[in-house]
Amino acid sequence: MTELHIGGVAASQLVAQYGSPLYVYDQQQLETNLQAYKQAFQSDRFPTKILYASKAFQTVGMMNLVNQYGFGVDVVSAGELYTALQSDVPVDHIYFHGNNKSTEELKMAFESGMQHIVCDNLMELTELSQLANDYKQPMQIMFRLNVGIEAHTHEYIVTTHIDSKFGMAYDSSDFKACLELLNDNDYLELEGFHVHIGSQIFEMDAWYAAIDKMVSYLNDFDQPLTLNLGGGFGVRYTEDDKPLGIEETMNQLLRYLDQSLTAADLTVKELIIEPGRSLVAEAGYTLYEIGYQKQTPNKTYYFVDGGMADNIRPSLYQAKYSCDVANKMDAEKTEHVTVAGKYCESGDVLIQDVALPKVEKGDLLVVYATGAYGYSMSSNYNRSLTPAVVFAKDGQTTEIVKRQTYLDLLRNDLK
Ligand SMILES: *Cc1c(COP(=O)(O)O)cnc(C)c1O
């Protein structure tokens, strides 16, 4: 029987060494994606910068890898900031997002020497202004703007009333007050504007609509500002997903922005994007051991030794994945089954209605493209142990995160 290899290492060997379930990344694929972004996202008109959106998959090892390619990172919490600070990423390459940063988080930003904050709202800027005065420390401020565009996989909508919890409308009184407050502060400096229109986006038209809005705002300022277009670039989870690919997406984005700036006779100080999912999703695999099988009147279940604790996305928003039996890659797919997890929720189903070969207890299931929002959204539900994370390349493995132990579960329990 043909067996799946990831980064040149057999699935059975990975599970034997690191346990099951197991998150495995094809390190070469990660590096290829990083290189593709780095190469394609360049302009001869203005400097460009890529920030990896940490929330998709963050560990110290991952931070160090993106840093090797010259990427910065964005963080959305004290925990993500702390992790980034423990890595090789220079502090001035870290950008802080979030609609409700706590005072403690903002203080941590000043005390760590951060230089970039993406401000969401007027109350936040008021607090930032106070803290900058207290610390007597400069801070560059990007404003998150709500351009009234919501992008989903195959469509985007222009919303008429803009009630998202993120950002401010450019023509709102809050945003005007922010600009005045910032002007009056000796330490805060206007860096530019940020927009993030959605996730798993395949339609370039959604980006173009957002770019048009952002460029129209730049017109009101004498000095060139930085534009940050956020993340949300789509990936392939199943054969129904047809992303354009990193290079083509970046080429089209840059071409459109170029035209838009030329038409408006403007330039930008710097152009930033923040890919998360598209850097890591397809490089990630989850391996499970198959346990029991069960027939119900209308279904055949294959049960695996993980589920919603290591991948909440199918239960949370009906995310679709594809899979194979990793130690029977060339076996005929004669069975139509539902792959369900082991946790105490009826909704703990990983994949509905998939064709797979006949299996035995102990066979290995691989779920593809689990590299984004899998480990980062994992939980200890049912007191399950969070799996190890392993990078595999050229037949070698590097353990990036150790598998949890029962002792880890009790670490904070008091008697
Ligand atoms: C989530 C997020 C990203 C990354 O989104 P992906 O869909 O993973 O590319 C980037 N920027 C901001 C502000 C985000 O909230």
Automatic annotation (TrEMBL):
Annotated InterPro entries: Ala_racemase/Decarboxylase_C, DAP_deCOOHase_LysA, De-COase2_C, De-COase2_N, De-COase2_pyr-phos_BS, Orn/DAP/Arg_de-COase, PLP-binding_barrel
Source organism of the structure: Jeotgalibaca arthritidis
TM segment ranges: none
A single BP term in Gene Ontology: lysine biosynthetic process via diaminopimelate
Annotated SUPFAM superfamilies: Alanine racemase C-terminal domain-like, PLP-binding barrel
Residue numbers bearing the N6-(pyridoxal phosphate)lysine modification: 55
Subunit structure: Homodimer.
UniProt record similarity statement: Belongs to the Orn/Lys/Arg decarboxylase class-II family. LysA subfamily.
EC numbers, comma separated: 4.1.1.20
Name of the protein: Diaminopimelate decarboxylase
Binding-site positions, substrate: 277, 313, 317, 345, 373
Keywords assigned by UniProt, alphabetized: Amino-acid biosynthesis, Decarboxylase, Lyase, Lysine biosynthesis, Pyridoxal phosphate
Domain Orn/DAP/Arg decarboxylase 2 C-terminal intervals: 23-371
Annotated Orn/DAP/Arg decarboxylase 2 N-terminal domain residues: 29-281
Residue positions of the active site: 344 (proton donor)
Pathway(s) annotated for this protein in UniProt: Amino-acid biosynthesis; L-lysine biosynthesis via DAP pathway; L-lysine from DL-2,6-diaminopimelate: step 1/1
Database matches in Gene3D superfamilies: Alanine racemase, Lyase, Ornithine Decarboxylase, Chain A, domain 1
Residues that hold pyridoxal 5'-phosphate according to the record: 232, 274-277, 373
Domain of life assignment: Bacteria
CC cofactor: pyridoxal 5'-phosphate
GO MF, one example: diaminopimelate decarboxylase activity
